[in-house]
Amino acid sequence: MNLKEELLSNKHKIHTTQLGIGRIKNNLGLSIDDVVEYCVNIIENENSTVIKKGKNYYVNLKNTELTINSSSFTIITAHLKK
Asked: What does each C-alpha distance from 38 to 1, 54, 58 come to in angstroms?
C-alpha cells in the first residue's frame, strides 16, 4: 500500500483542533466552515502527492501543502507554497 492509499484508508480518522481550523483557514485564505472536508478533498485529488518525513505526512497539490500527523491523523497545518 502506498502512502496516499494508507492515508485515504484512514480518512475517517482525519481531524484537526479548533486552533488548527483557524490556522488552516488563515494560511490558505479560506472562508469555508469544514476545513477537514476541504483537506480530505485535496488528499483525494488524483494529482495530489503524499510523502512521509518522520512522524508526518506531507500532502502536496499545486501550491498547497498539508501537514498531517501520521499516528493521530490530525491536520497540523496547511501552507501555500511560494
From this structure: 24, 24, 15
Q: Which residue has the cell 503524499?
A: 50
Kindly report the backbone phi and psi dihedral angles of residue 45, in degrees, each rounded to the nearest multiple of 5, phi listed first: -55, 135
6-40: pLDDT as tens digits: 999 999 999 999 999 999 999 999 999 999 999 99
Which residue has 512522524 as its cell numbers? 55
Among left, alpha and beta (phi > 0; psi -120 to 50; other), residue 30 is beta
Per DSSP, the three-state class of 55 is coil
* CATH number 3.30.465 is the correct assignment for the domain at 3-80: no
Query: Could you count the other beta carbons within 10 Å of the beta carbon of residue 64?
Result: 18
Q: How much is the CA Rg of the chain, to the nearest whole Å?
A: 12
Whole-prediction pTM: 0.94
